Amino acid sequence: MKIGITCYPTYGGSGVVATELGIELAARGHDIHFITYSPPFRLTGREANIHFHEVAVSNYPLFEHPPYDLALATRMAEVAEFYSLDLLHVHYAIPHSVSALLARQMLASRGHLLPFITTLHGTDITLVGIDRSYLPITKFGIEQSDGVTAISSYLRERTREAFGVQSEIEVIRNFVNCDVYVRKPDLVSAMRPRFANPDERLLVHLSNFRPVKRIQDVVEVFARVNRSVPARLMLIGDGPERSDAEYLAREHNIQDRIHFVGKQDNVNELLPLADLMLMPSEMESFGLAALEAMACSVPTIGTRVGGVPELIEDGHNGLLFEVGDIDAMSAASIALLSDEEWLRAMARAARKTAQDHFCSSRVIPIYEDYYDRVIART
Ligand code: GMT
Q1: pTM of whole model > 0.80?
Q2: Which residue's alpha carbon is at the smallest distance from atom 12 of ligand 1?
Q3: Ligand 1 atom with least separation from CA of 174
């Protein structure tokens, strides 16, 4: 198949899923065309069967807000025509589904068929999408899509409730490449000493440091853990809450125990170094960072929100708490990190969950099957 993929190419779960999906599909022989304003950050540019088409937005002085959505629609239509795309797959509804709709209409007027699929990721529905200024057009974009997928059952139900969308929404959960995201003992032995001493535990958090991730809770939990168990914290990513986290670390005088490693491409090399992942988010429609950690045999202490319980089974492959319950999360982290056998059992269960249910080898064929069905009915 020839597939166009559009996403936010920056540091964020939806862009990661879209990019990894493109990489996996290309490895299975499909021709993948990314259509975005810059190359998705996890692409190396050396992958076979992957093409990148930049969306350039002209910045005429009259435009206080350059119309990216229109430039995107134009580029989508051009690429689809020049490369005979079979379908477009857009990740994150706003504004991508509306641009795809325009591209489909432009091509239809010239007798070309271009079905498009929208994948809903979370904040496009739970935050941005329900803002009154975007709701009607987001709902329209979803309803006009030839296929709609959601990354969890939670998000499907939330979309139905919040938008009153009646059309079919297929749940296709996020995935991870279990051969790439895996704990390799040699690599761990070589790299872990850079981040923690042998007698110390290493905790990790990975996000875009937005308020929804509650980075302050990560630092608060770590501060309490560090009082009972010698430990270090690795913070992967960057974003608006970073300086608050740095300030809080100084207040607790634990700044020397925290590694702010910033945005990293190869998180598969860093995650396996850790003993425990902290994900105290206010909301997660799925929680991709937790899945990536789980595949690396790192269990998560997280919050019972959104789609997280569809990934983490409390007490089996991780532990779930109410949002903001720092005391309970700290106590559980200390208990788990102090009990080697329990920690190992949970690490094994985390890896097994990733392997049994969320490996790309299982999920990508589900996408392929869905593409076939959408193309067949349009
Ligand atoms: O969580 C973010 O701030 C980023 C956001 C995105 O769209 O990039 O993440 C959403 O999509 C991820 C990939 O499907 C999910 O794993 C996240 O749970 C989801 N975030 C929220 O629902 C808050």
Answers
A1: yes
A2: 13
A3: 14
CATH code at 2-175+360-377: 3.40.50.2000
User: Do 216 and 244 contact (CB within 8 A), yes or no?
Assistant: yes
pLDDT tens-place string over residues 123-169: 878 777 677 888 889 999 999 999 999 999 999 999 999 888 888 99
The fold for domain 185-357 equals Rossmann fold (3.40.50)
**The ligand 1 atom nearest the CA atom of 288:** 16
Q: What percent of the chain is predicted at pLDDT more than 90?
A: 87
- Identical fold for domains 2-175+360-377 and 185-357, yes or no, is yes
Q: How many angstroms is it from 115 CA to the middle of ligand 1?
A: 25
Spatial strand order in the sheet of 231-236? 258-262, 231-236, 201-206, 276-279, 300-303, 318-321
pLDDT interval class at 92 (50, 70, 90) = very high
CA of residue 186 to ligand 1 center, whole Å: 32
Dihedral sign, Cα of residue 291, residue 237, residue 285, residue 204: positive
The set of protein residues with a Cβ atom below 6 angstroms from ligand 1 is 12-15, 17, 92, 121-123, 126, 151, 174, 208, 210, 212, 283-288, 306
Spacing, Cα 286 to ligand 1 middle (Å): 7
Confidence of residue 256 (pLDDT cuts 50, 70, 90): very high
What are the boundaries of each domain within the chain? 2-175+360-377, 185-357
